[in-house]
């Protein structure tokens, strides 16, 4: 089995030119690195060394199962976004933003600002994803593809009010960090799906656009992909593109009739 040393991981991250003591959201798929020396604690140690102890660090703690269960507890519902994200969620002092589908775990100097976000739509106004743009955060992907490694792009879609998505409410039991039930329904800006057709995202043109504009910094580490983007310029580039071409990254799939 492939093995990745912490020295190699740290060197790969260093080559991305990441800012220190900034705001960084990390998406991860560590299986692509094989066995990592030091396991999850080792990965966290390298992130702290490369990014700086005063970094505000965020990771997705998404819960897709809420769509069926309609029960979500900020304190106990696990992250469904990989081993590193669940390990991070459980660390002492880590806070969690409030949304039953798309919450983020966060630690560091600005953690309270993110945890204070109150947004009923996953990526909409007042969301931590909007705050990531405002704070000029960095998006870092460890081992993931572009799909699944840059979820702030859904905030851009929502900001642009793309016509292939609409708001859908998901009522259920949502408990905050104090165990208090939230009275309001949370919602998501979902893709349009009908009996005749459905829309899917095609993210390849967006990746190509970002690469052509010099917005992506990437490295290959023993066959695993790592990349970083500054969120604000990427968001602004994508937003202007969607405003000119609303279906830029959407494909309409017609369903066959039986």
Please give a structural write-up.
This protein is of the alpha/beta class and 258 residues long. The protein contains nine helices and 15 strands. The chain has one domain (3-253). Helix content is 30%, strand content 26%. Strands 6-7-4-2-8-14-13 form a seven-stranded mixed sheet. Strands 1-3 form a two-stranded parallel sheet. Strands 5-10 form a two-stranded parallel sheet. It starts with a strand and ends with a strand. The mean pLDDT is 96.
Present the secondary structure layout.
Layout: E1 3-4, H1 6-14, E2 23-28, E3 35-36, H2 39-51, E4 56-60, H3 66-69, E5 71-73, H4 83-89, E6 95-96, E7 104-107, H5 111-115, H6 128-134, E8 138-142, H7 152-160, E9 165-170, E10 173-175, E11 186-191, E12 197-201, H8 204-212, E13 217-221, E14 224-230, H9 231-244, E15 250-254
Parallel strand pairs: 1-3, 2-4, 2-8, 5-10
Antiparallel strand pairs: 4-7, 6-7, 8-14, 9-11, 12-15, 13-14
Helix pairs in contact: 1-2, 7-9
Gist of the model:
The chain is of the alpha/beta class and 258 residues long. It has nine helices and 15 strands. It has one domain.
Relevant terms:
7-stranded mixed beta sheet; 258 residues; 9 helices; alpha/beta; 30% helix; two-stranded parallel ribbon
The helix/strand order is: EHEEHEHEHEEHHEHEEEEHEEHE
By DSSP, the count of extended strands is: 15
How many domains make up the 3D coordinates? Answer: 1
Shape: globular
Content-based structural category? alpha/beta
